[in-house]
Amino acid sequence: MSTISELGDSSEKMVFQPLKILVVDDQVGVRSLFEILIREEGDEAYIAQNGMEAVELACQVIPDLVFMDVKMPLMGGIEALERIKEVLPETDVVIMTSYGAEETLTRAMQKGALCFLAKPFDIGEIKEFIRRYRWKRAGVQATASGEYP
User: Fold this and answer.
1) Which of 30, 42, 71, 77 could be joined to 25 by an S-S link, Cβ 3.0–4.6 Å?
2) What is the dihedral of CA 15, 18, 8, 93, to 10 degrees?
3) Domain assignment present for 65
4) Of 112, 10, 18, 5, which is closest to residue 61 (Cα–Cα)?
5) For residues 24, 30, 33 and 39, what is the CA-based torsion angle, rounded to 10 degrees?
6) 3 with 16: CB under 8 angstroms?
C-alpha cells in the first residue's frame, strides 16, 4: 500500500512507500497507541517491549524509523540505540522519555539518535512528526516557514 500526498500544485502527486516504524516501550498502552497512529497513517508498525527485542526485530525488518523508550527492562534504550546504529546506521531513532535528564539525552544524541520525544505525548505532534519524516525522507524540501506540502 502506498500513501499519496498532494504537493502544492494539485496536478502533482507524490506516491510514498509505507514507512517501517518500530516502536519500543515496556508500557503496553504506549505500544498500542503508537501502533494505531502508525497504521492510521498507512505505515507498517512493528512492536518490541524491550531493547533486546528491538535489536532482534530491527535486524529482521530493517525499519526506517524507531521510537525508543529509554528506561526498559533487560536492555535500556540507549544500549539498544547503540546496537541498532552499529548494524543499521541509516535507521533513524527517536528517543522517548519522561525522564528529562540532560545527560541521558546528550548521550543518546552522541550515540546517533535523531531527536527525542518527551512523555506524555501529544497525538497530533506524533502524527505530524511521522508526516514530516516521510516528506524529508523522500527528499522534499520544507518551505521557508518550515512547512511541508
Assistant:
1) 30
2) -140
3) yes
4) 18
5) 0
6) yes
Cis amide prior to 73 (ω within 30 degrees): no
- Domains held by the chain: number: 1
pTM of the model: 0.84
Across the chain, which has 149 residues, the per-10-residue mean pLDDT values are 38 72 96 95 96 97 96 93 96 86 80 88 90 85 60
Domain of residue 102 covers 16-137
Looking at the domain assignment, is residue 3 inside a domain? no
CATH number at residue 116: 3.40.50.2300
* DSSP-derived pairing of the beta strands 13-16 and 3-6: antiparallel
Look at residue 28 and tell me if it is in a domain: yes
Tell whether the torsion through CA atoms of 72, 76, 80 and 82 is positive or negative: positive
Contact at 8 Å (CB) between 87 and 54?
no
